[in-house]
Write a structure and sequence with these properties.
The chain is of the alpha/beta class. Helices cover 47% and strands 19% of the residues.
Amino acid sequence: MDPYWLLVGGLIFIGSARSLLRTIQLSTTLRTMDQDSERARFVDEHWAKLVQRVQMVMKIADELWSAGMLQPELYNKIKAEKTNQEKMRELYEVLNSGGNKVKSAFYSCLEKNEPLLLRDLGSTGHGKSTEISPVIDEYKKWIRSDYLCVTEYNSLPGERVLLSKRFVHPLILRKHRDRIEREEEIRSSGERFQQVLRSRSSGGSLQLNSLFDPDEDGISPRSVILQGNSGYGKSFTVQKIMMDWASGVLYKERFDIVFHLKCKEINRVSDEMNLVEILSCSCSLTSHEISQILQQSPEKVLVVIDGFDELKLPQDINNDTSAHTDLLQKARPVDTLCALLRRRILLKSFLLVSSRSTATDTLSKLLNGHQRFSEIVGFSEKGVEEYFQKFFQNEERFRKAYTYVKANETLITACSIPVVCWIICTTIQERFKDGADKTSGLETTSIYVDFVCTLLKHHCQGLSQSVPTLLRSLGQLAERGMREQQVLLDEKSVIETISDPTGNPFLCKILFKRRVRLETMFSFMHLSFQEFFTALYYVLLDGEKSLRKLLMDCSSKPHFAAVMQFAFGLLNKDQDVRLALEEHGLLIRPETQDHLKEWILEKVKDGFLDLGGEFILHCLYELHEEDFVKEVMGSWERMDLGMCFLSRADVCALLYCCQCCQRIEGISLFLTSEDLSMILPELHKFKKVSVSIEDPSDSDLIELINALTRGQTLSSQRVREKRNLQSRQDISLLSINKEPSSICIEFFLYGSPDMRSCSLTFPLSSINIDWTRLYQIIHQRDFNAFLSVLHSFSNLEKMKMWVKCLNEKWFVQILQMSQKCPSLTELKVDACLFQEDAIEILKSSNTRPGCVITFSGRTIRDGRCDHRVEILLNDQGFSMTQTPFFGTKGTALQHM
């Protein structure tokens, strides 16, 4: 046999094939012994850290047992220990007794199950560690796909909407508010409510990217509580955080991984699970991948827990003494989650927990370490506008919808609640699609009914009582608060009325400092919801006795007016409202409808409108029953709405009531120019109208006059305008009166230096006037031009003027105008003063046939009022009657 040579370990061996084989075997054994020794040395050197950081202890024990290196008794002993640290200490006894070979096998198991840990401890290893970055990249890709869209409450199967088309950053406050501030927020509405929100946010609002920023003391929170009431967008905000992190625009440097746990889903898990398994169930990562990620950089892990208030906590949650400190220890999911909140596991991670206010105090007690409180208080005014823009995706529709809702104080305030904003936009969108008026089906009560039904369906799982019972208890609580004029309700009275106030989505729990203790109070989301539940209680849930009490209270307690409006809204026969109520066992009693209708009809007939005509209009609008509206409007002799400006919501209610009728007796209005165009189409239905307008344009007034003069039922109408012209106010009054065959239009100009008023009478059959030109001349105070333009009124029959002083110039112009108006039959001029020299002109004048001019006033002599003079001028010539003026005998006349 030929000899062989071989280089082994730097030495040359020469010999036969058999000796060569023995040499190779010896070399392999030596190399294995060196490897076992090196691995054993690594295990011994890093054992303290391995005890604390190895997570897959039982999996490693399983592999050692399968390889015959672990006896059953020792395996069971390891398994019996509760924590990973204790399991590792038991395992070390086995490794020491087994020598380097067993330690080397343990190291091989670490290479397979804990590669990132080995790399972090500085091992060169004998196998390549798994690269985790691609795993996280794939996870981010999954999030960007799974969180891209949202499913709305009314979505059809497979129907979804892009998150970007619905999400608007809510207003997040970082501080608690005191009792006075809370009460102010609950009671205010409309523009005042927005002012309150702006004042709160000026003290420090939070953006999503600043939730974990250091506080004024330089301390960064490890846990952030994100509080918000039901429907305020907590889950949407969490989804946005996940989406932005996965897209690289949020927390890019702060967190390597962000997990999202939904408490509602955790409640459904019945099996015991460890935290890694729970996290795996909520995302695309495997338990093994999650374990490696958590070991790599636990200080760059954020766990978002959504809906803590929905978590079914054990009753002894605050007395927990369990030693749940092992990431892989299996337990009830709720116990595992509580161990995470208490920081018994994942000590270095960060937590963001969303919750309703009713569970925030419980959550705060569970959390260990520095924590930050934050609260979503809904949309700001700018946020509501942005939401409408995103929803409608059409500028014209957005403007129409937003303008209408903004004018309704109750609705625009409720729009700060994101889910209410969605309900309103959805309702208006349906109106647009159906081609109906945007306000149809948008009664305030119907929106509140939809909101309550939405929360009952999606936020009231696991109720221990029926819906009618729940609503009745809420109604009783609301009614008691309304009667006592309280919006902050003490804990004792709430618990006496509501069986489980902390689980009730319609209530907010608020903690206040009171000297050396904390005081717990409850409230409804806003005063308007308290008013709604009070109405619900009176109309649907209690007997006739309570309803009669409401009718009495509404007459004597003005703060019950909104309750009554909601009550009429609950009588609305709209199919959607009725179905929503009936679905929850709420039925309208016929006698309830009769009592409320009789009450409001009696108020109108008696003219005892102690709560104002606007209140009646809103009740009728909420009721939306055309036949009954006609009956009430027909009994209303005069609608006196002219005490102050009507709001846009008032105008909408008035417009609806007018549209239900063909003829209405009389009305007095105080409008802004902006609202004038809305009501114009209906003004002709009134027999008598008095309209006051602030700062109208000439075109507004022309449209108004044209609308009024076209009216078929008109007998008299008055329009009062108030203009702001630089440093002075210019106020005028327009009066229109119809006679059987003619129409008289009269202008009253206050503050004019020359002419105070002028009335023009035309045949009813033909009114052809350039109103624009006439109005411009009147407001320019150019009365020479005014008299000149009257020449063009070929059908002017009668004219009457009231001026301050009749001088020679006035007389000449008046005579010329009478000659150039062939249809003019009667002209009357009343003057405060006559200049005697000017009278001489009239003595030699006469008029054309069929025209009579009458002048009346007082003459001036030696600076004093001398006589009262009446001059008659016709085609026969001049006549004058003088009467001594005794009222100011011996009194000097002031210069005018």
